[in-house]
Amino acid sequence: MIASLNVDHIVHAPRIPEPGETLMGFSTSRELGGKGGNQAVAAARLGAEVAVIGCVGQDEDGDEYLAALLAEGADVTHVRRSALPTGRAAITVDAEGVNSIVVVSGANADIPAAAAEAAIDELPGLRVVAGQLEAAAEATERAFAAARSRGALTVLNTAPVGDAAEKLLPLSDVVVANEIEFRQLTGQDPFDGNGLRRGGAELSAVGCRWVIVTLGAAGCAVLDASSSTHVPAVAVRAVDTTAAGDSFVGALAARLAEIPGEPTTADVVAACGFAAKVAAVVVTRHGAHPSLPTAAEVAGFS
Catalytic residues (predicted)? Predict the structure, then answer.
């Protein structure tokens, strides 16, 4: 996992404030998060063998994050320490569980590209390499190229969309974008069938084998070069959507890593069904890492 590792500062409020508006909130909390860290912990709790490539500060936040990853059973050999502070995120969660997030990269921008590439070559039995656009772009690019040369599957979560996407998309076997990111990448409406297919074809044309568009309560769509399959969401009462998308990506990567040989579209669709159930568990809980379930909890969820 090429991972962004952040400390989240969360405010619960009646709604997301308008620009220039001050609201009175309900409560605050501080938790470990970051898209990559969330995805790594999600996969580890579901039973995957996870190695993290990333960077934290030479600060107490960095110490805490490394200890937490070790406690989850993750390999942190390739997590480096930076003079920059550990990454941070400011998150507002409204009364319906919808969130708004601002990320300050800090040490996440300091992952050495050559070290990330070398780490891929040093990991035995590598099957899936996942990354996001929160971590250092060149490091992710070099790691994805190295992973592909070894025959590993690459999974890119296109959050947050930025200039790095242009270089990473051609190196990504599986692309996971939410509805906003899909619009930003393709200019197409994912809730319109024709727009969904046009956008999927555009991403397939640059080299993505599967495009997964997450649509919140509407589930997700799995697109390949010739088909579109809808995977329904699991109906639940959401209390906090923090880490929902990350849990989906982590669960997807964990399931894809279990597939012997080359995955098929049917395999990807089935993995998305499992990931949707994991995300359903997550949104019924508060926080990032605290909300991520074990395999047993997912199996018992209904």
Answer: 246
Q: Is 86 annotated as a binding residue?
A: no
What are the distances in angstroms from CA 4 to CA 17, 30, 173?
26, 17, 20
Its pTM stands at 0.93
Q: Is residue 102 part of a domain?
A: no
Q: 108 a known binding residue?
A: no
* Inside any domain, residue 68: yes
Confirm whether 61 is a catalytic residue. Answer: no
Tally of domains in the chain: 1
Residue ranges making up the domain that contains 243 = 35-82+108-300
54 is in an annotated binding site: no
- Is 38 annotated to bind a ligand? Reply is yes
Catalytic residue among 61, 94, 246, 267: 246
- Pairing status of strand 27-33 against strand 6-12: antiparallel
Average pLDDT per consecutive 10 residues, the chain (302 residues; last block may be shorter): 94 94 94 95 98 98 98 98 96 88 94 96 94 95 96 96 93 97 97 95 96 95 95 92 93 96 96 97 91 95 80
Domain contains 88: no
245 in a labelled binding site: yes
Q: Prior bond to 232 cis, omega within 30?
A: no
Per DSSP bridges, beta strands 174-178 and 210-214 are: parallel
**CA 196: distance to chain centroid?**
21
Question: Can you read off the two tokens belonging to residue 205?
Answer: 């044309």
